[in-house]
Amino acid sequence: MSILQVNALVAGYEPGLSIVKGASIHAAEAEIVVILGPNGAGKSSLIKAIAGLVPITGGQVLLDGRDMTAVPAHLKIRQGLAFVPQTENIFPLMTVEENLRVAGGVLPRADVAPRIEEMFTAFPDLARQRALMAGSLSGGQRQMLAVARALIVRPRVLVLDEPSAGLSPKLVEQVFSRLSEIRQAGLTIVLVEQNARAALAIGDRAYVLVEGREAHEGPAKTLWDDPIIAELYLGHRKEAS
Amino acid sequence: MSLQFLLDGLIAGSMIGLGAIGVTLTYSILRFSNFAHGDFMAWGAYAALAVVGALGGSTPIAPLSFGWPLLAAMVVAMGLTALLALVLDALLFGRLRARGQSIIVVMASFGASMALRSLLEFMFTSSPTYFSRAIQMATPIGFGVRITADQVALLILTLALVTGMHLFMQRSQRGREMRAYSQNPALARVVGIDVAKVIRATWIIGAALACAAGVMVGVLVQIRPLMGLDLLLPIFAAAILGGIGSVPGAVLGGLIIGLSEAAAVQFVGAEWRAAVAFVILMAVLLVRPMGLYGVAER
Lengths: 241, 298
Prior knowledge:
The structure holds two protein chains of two kinds.
Chain A: E1 2-11, E2 20-28, E3 32-36, H1 43-51, E4 56-63, E5 66-67, H2 73-79, E6 81-84, H3 96-103, H4 109-122, H5 124-128, H6 139-151, E7 157-161, H7 169-184, E8 188-192, H8 196-202, E9 205-210, E10 213-219, H9 220-223, H10 227-234
Chain B: H1 4-30, H2 37-54, H3 68-98, H4 102-124, E1 139-142, E2 145-147, H5 149-171, H6 173-183, H7 185-190, H8 195-220, H9 227-242, H10 247-267, H11 273-287
Antiparallel strand pairs in B: 1-2
């Protein structure tokens, strides 16, 4: 059964100018779903609309069967949907610990300190930097902090917008390896990525979004080998073997 | 040479700094320059005056010129001024802010400022008034400096308010939320911060501190409908000098402006008071455009 169900979603920043034009996706429990597509396909707008940051003008977002379409962004995290934006996904003028603490504001007060320590155990690199300003972290550490900040509330679904953006290949490997580990704990992950190869390597299923709606859906492992999809949407030609 | 100007500057700077905290918070969180902020000071002072009157006057606690009724009135007036700010936001600023054009909100704050000032003149006349007309004797404390008991009390009150404010912003969840929202409003919403509560807290804190500053001006100088307008430019200078969004910066900026104004009166002439403060402001901004405690945009 799908934990996240998006039905015929229409969304855009300006009234009458939809960027997402009827996209439908779903994600099952502990599944990694990758959303790919050419630039301007509406990938980021789709997940921002799911997170409540882009106005939705049609369709539905269901989380575990509950209608989240009209739920404001700040309440979605309480319902179990966490979002990590592509850039500016930390508070740079707060310490690493304060970043976690401010996100823990939706938790019961007694749970905040243990959850912060839980995150520092899961991300030991962050634990060593806990008193540093988050703005002084490296790109990879920032991304880890953004993920830890989202995980502190133990969401059911984690939605990420291009977590590999701006990272070196080694750091991309680390981030994606960590996402695989997080999925092992039962979390559903929905991922928008330009780095198709890395994302499909850890994904279970993938969608290719074109002009605001899904044009193709399939198992992540086989999508990379589909010559038509590869040439049309992923920017490479798969040689016949 | 008398060092009295240092004490005068410190006291003036304390009041400017308290006012600048509200301006810096409003600018960094609500993203507009609120030119009605000075009028919150005047309204706060008049509200305290009205409450003291309703309480039957203030019997002084020697050697101060005021007593517990004024302190109680100040607390009530801080609440009333916060209420005024919330009503203004609900009726005016919030509606314009929702349209996303901050220049319109700034212009609306000019209008609100004039309306608030005119209302005070209508209700209380433009003549100055006082919490107490008693003359206080200043005590010499060395180096030619003399200080009154009221000045000591108000410096202690300023220190307590600024310390409390700093602890609130650093240690409380709401304070952290306000800082987070000022850095990145969209991310703040994503992490579960209720924007409406942050905005309410910003108005309440800013207006309450403006009221406290207004009462202090009323105790040490006089109460006039124009008192907020007179302090508006030094307050904005202090907020910019300290670095927009920084509470310690606003206080330090206030002290620098207060001290430089007092020094100008002492060494150059009273007519240069405002000019010298702004020369220092411009000099600091040329060297450090983000202000003393501000951080450059990344």
